[in-house]
Amino acid sequence: MPTNSPTPLFPTTRREFLQLSGRGIGLLAFSRFAPAFLVNSALASTPAPEKDRSILVLVQLAGGNDGLNTLVPFEDANYYRLRPTLAIAKEKVLRASGTLGLHPSCAALHRLLQDGKLAIVQNVGYPNPNRSHFRSSEIWETASASSEFLATGWIGRFMDNACAGQPAGAAGPVGVHISNGVPQSFLSASVHPTFGLLPGAGNHHENEESRQLLETLANQTGAAGNDSATFLRHTLMDSLVTEKKVQRVLGGYQPSATYPRNPFAASLRNVAALIAAGLPTRVYFVSLGGFDTHSNQANQQANLLTTLSEGLAAFQRDLEDHKLDGQVATMTFSEFGRRPSENESRGTDHGTAAPLFVMGSRVQGGLHGTAPALNLAPNEDLAFTTDFRSVYATMLDRWLACPSEPVLGGKFRGLPIV
Predict the structure, then answer these.
(1) Residue 189 within any structural domain of the chain
(2) pLDDT value at position 226?
(3) Do residues 53 and 323 make contact, with C-beta atoms less than 8 angstroms apart?
(4) What's the CA gap between 126 and 139, in Å, rounded?
(5) SS3 for the chain, per residue?
(6) How many whole angstroms separate alpha carbon 158 and alpha carbon 413?
(7) pLDDT cut 70: percent of the chain above it
(8) Residues in the chain, pLDDT under 70
(9) In which domain, by residue range, is 136 found?
(10) HSE-CB of 294 using CA atoms within 13 angstroms
(11) Do residues 20 and 11 touch, judged by C-beta distance below 8 A?
C-alpha cells in the first residue's frame, strides 16, 4: 500500500488483531494473515479433519467459581465452621455421595450426574498458585507452570500438533470461540483457521455490521497489486464466505431442546448448531462470567449456577436428540476457587483449588479425585490434590486422540473420566 494512503482498516500488529477480533468479527478473517504477521512458515496443505472426530467444548467460569459451595462437603463440620452464613444447609444439598453434594441450584446437572453423564473432578489446581485473575487465567489457558510464561495456549498447541493448517474457507474453522475476545487457549505457533462470535444469539445489526466491515477490508486491500495485499484480500474474501455460512447455519437451526433465555444458553445453542452443520471444528470455547463473589455471594452464585446447570443440560439434550452426543464432551474450568473461610462481606476471596465438570454421554460419570481437607485456620487456602494438567492430558490423550506430552510439555497422569 502506498505510504501516502490512509491508515488501513485491517490490523498490522498482533495487538490490533486481538482487539479487532474481540469485536466479534470472525477470526477466520485474519487467521491466515501474511506470514510475517503471525508466523514465518507456510501453511501445510494437509486434509481437513474428518467431521466425525471427537469434539471438545470448553466452558470458562470467569472470575473464580467457589468450589466449596458448588460441591458441598455437607458432613464436614469444618465447612460450617469456616462459613457460618454462606454454608449450604445439609438438607438442601443434592447428594452426590454420602458426604458430598451439589448446590441446590444445580438440579439439572444433578440429574446428569445420576444418569452417569457428568464427571466431577474434585479439588483441581496447580503448585504455587497465583491469585491474580489475569495471571491465573493465563496459567490455566496456556497450561504453564506458575513460574513460566508461554506464548501459546494449550488448545493452540493441540492445533499445532493435531490440526495441520487447511486453506481458509475450504471446509471451516478448527476452533470456534463465542466470547468477547480471543481466548489465550487458542494462541498457536502455526496458523490455523479459527472463528469468533459474540456471546449470545447475536442480532441482525451486529451481524450486518460485521459483514460490512469484512467487505470494506476486502475491497480496501489488494489495490496496490503486491503479493501480500492480494493474499490478504483473498483471505478476507474467504472469511466473508465463512461469515455468511455461519450466520446462515445459526439462523436456520432448529434445536430439539428448549434453551433458557439468556446469553450463555444462546451461545451453547449456537455451538450445537455449528456441530449439527458438520463443521470440522474440534474445539469450541464459551464463557460465563460473574463468579468473582467477594461480597453477598449467596444469591449471585446461586443464579450463576442455575444458568450454568440449565444451559449445559439443555445443550446435552439437544446433542442427544440430534444423535451427536457421542462426539461431544464438555468441560468447565475457572481460574481458581475461593478461600474456604467467608469474609466479612458475606463473600469469599480469591483462593486456589475447586472442582470442575466434564459432561457427555461417553464420560465416566461420578466423583473423581480427592476431596479437599478443611481442617484449616481462617484465611488458609485449600491444598489442591489434582493438577489441572492431568485433566487436560486426559482430554487430549483419550478424547481428542492427541498425545498430551508435546502439548503440555511434560507427562501428567491421566484420570478415568473418559
Answers:
(1) yes
(2) 57
(3) no
(4) 9
(5) CCCCCCCCCCCCCHHHHHHHHCCCCCHHHCCCCCHHHHCCCCCCCCCCCCCCCCEEEEEEECCCCCCCCCEECCCCHHHHHHCCCCCCCHHHCEECCCCCEECHHHHHHHHHHHCCCEEEEEEEECCCCCCCHHHHHHHHHHCCCCCCCCCCCHHHHHHHHHCCCCCCCCCCCCEEEECCCCCHHHCCCCCCCEEEECCCCCCHHHHHHHHHHHHHHHHHCCCCCCHHHHHHHHHHHHHHHHHHHHHHHHHHCCCCCCCCCCHHHHHHHHHHHHHHCCCCCCEEEEEECCCCCCCCHHHHHHHHHHHHHHHHHHHHHHHHHCCCHHHEEEEEECCCCECCCCCCCCCCCECCCEEEEEECCCCCCEEECCCCCCCCCCCCCCCCCEEHHHHHHHHHHHHCCCCHHHHHCCCCCCCCCC
(6) 18
(7) 76
(8) 1-52, 164-171, 201-242
(9) 14-408
(10) 3
(11) yes
Is 8 a member of any domain?
Answer: no
Tell me, yes or no, whether 362 lies in a domain: yes
Looking at every residue in the chain, the average pLDDT score rounds to 84
The pTM of the full predicted model, rounded to 2 decimals, is: 0.85
In a domain, 416, yes or no: no
Task: Report d(CA 185, CA 123) in Å as an integer.
Answer: 22
Residue 45: CATH number of its domain:
3.40.720
Query: Looking at the 3D structure of the chain, how many domains does it have?
Result: 1
| CA-to-CA separations, 139 to 93, 124, 369, in angstroms, rounded | 32, 13, 21
Q: Which of left, alpha, beta for 169 (phi over 0: left; psi -120 to 50: alpha)? A: left
